[in-house]
Predict the structure of GntR family transcriptional regulator.
Amino acid sequence: MVCPVTSENSSAPALPAALSLADARRLRADRARQVADVLRRQVRHGAFPSGVLPAEADLVREFGATRNAVRDALDLLRGEGLVERCPGVGTVVVGAKYPHPLERLLGLAETLREHGEVGNEVRTTGLITPPREIAARLGLAEGEPVVYIERLRRLNGLPLSLDLTYIPRDLGEPLLTEDLAHNDVFVLLERIAGQPLGRAELTLEAVNADPHSAATLDAPRGAALMMVERLTHLADGRPVDLEFIRFRGDRITMRGTLRRGPCQ
Amino acid sequence: MVCPVTSENSSAPALPAALSLADARRLRADRARQVADVLRRQVRHGAFPSGVLPAEADLVREFGATRNAVRDALDLLRGEGLVERCPGVGTVVVGAKYPHPLERLLGLAETLREHGEVGNEVRTTGLITPPREIAARLGLAEGEPVVYIERLRRLNGLPLSLDLTYIPRDLGEPLLTEDLAHNDVFVLLERIAGQPLGRAELTLEAVNADPHSAATLDAPRGAALMMVERLTHLADGRPVDLEFIRFRGDRITMRGTLRRGPCQ
């Protein structure tokens, strides 16, 4: 749902005499955070199929919170780009967030198949001499060239991630003759290598977008990004695909399961 | 290493005549991003044990990039709070980032044992009637009270995360008599329940900190946070611990391994 942004003037809260102003502010902010965390989960899991959140009065009742704390909570979610206020309608869900599993190694189009079509704008491709760090991680000798591919990936036309990919030359050069705009690199790599992928080591970090990355992803300056670094190996163990991926934080949720025992 | 922030005036780059200004800007920003991604990885993995990055001229050579692109790359990492410029010294590593495994369910103190001491400032505890969403996820009837615990968690005195925790009353009330400042909830829960924890479902999102959360975590306004929502079960499957955790993005790196096959 698209809705014009409006601003709202809420009157100051009445404070119990025994509470200092600082205490009251903290209490209200703490409550807002609690409410926002529950609503975020509900929004993400489709608890409001009409796309409209319950009225403020209902949220006040449901959460046992003040109207101001509920408003602050909605403001928090608005700040995350999850909801918008719509005059005459209420608070509406905007900007879908897509689940990305942490349990199986999948390409983006494979992952999001049920959510729509992934399209890749190939921004750069070429043979480069990589920095030593990249060569080392791909198990290559210093100075050996690699194929570099940079893609802006969209889901249903909306920017989702900016991917910087390094691939050894023997697999990367055939890859460049393929349709990179409409295929996951993973699927193409398996075909070219004649064997499936095996495992990938990955790291996830939350970082603020630098101005240029933000502009490329059509996100606000400083927007939170989910930065993924992933080294993928073929089934035989050879490292073949090193990627640095900037996901728009407001469009992706990573999901996984952890186990307490070492091998339950 | 602590170092005063300085600003620097770099002269404008000389542009090849054939390149439009917009193209040149994009090229330089793209190169800076590539360089920053490699340097980020190196910083994170202790590639510069002296705490000082190579001189700009050396980075220019190593990356085959212009001096301006290298400077922009260092600026990106500075923006992430990873490095700082130190007059007379160079670019130094600041603010260590800690690895948090995505492969095993561990409490924070267990996770970070080798990195230092985790201390918990217990901000709030109490018995509350939770919103229906919370009750449902903990497998409780509507209106059943739960114990709510809010903790600001520090590593070696520095704020790392703000944790909002919901626990069923029968386990949560005994928990409140324990030393929550110096123990992980996980370890205490296992002792109280008389059985180990089993699995946890978790989601990870990158979000911008709202002003109050930022202030609580001593982070800049709008700082990128790694927001974790985690529902932990006992070994017998009962859900017993629902947490909403805001990690400072500049202090934590999540690490895991994915496999291509469904059960390799």
In short: Strands of chain B lie at 83-86, 90-93, 98-101, 118-128, 146-155, 158-168, 197-208, 224-234, 239-248, 252-259. Chain B has two domains: 21-93, 98-255.
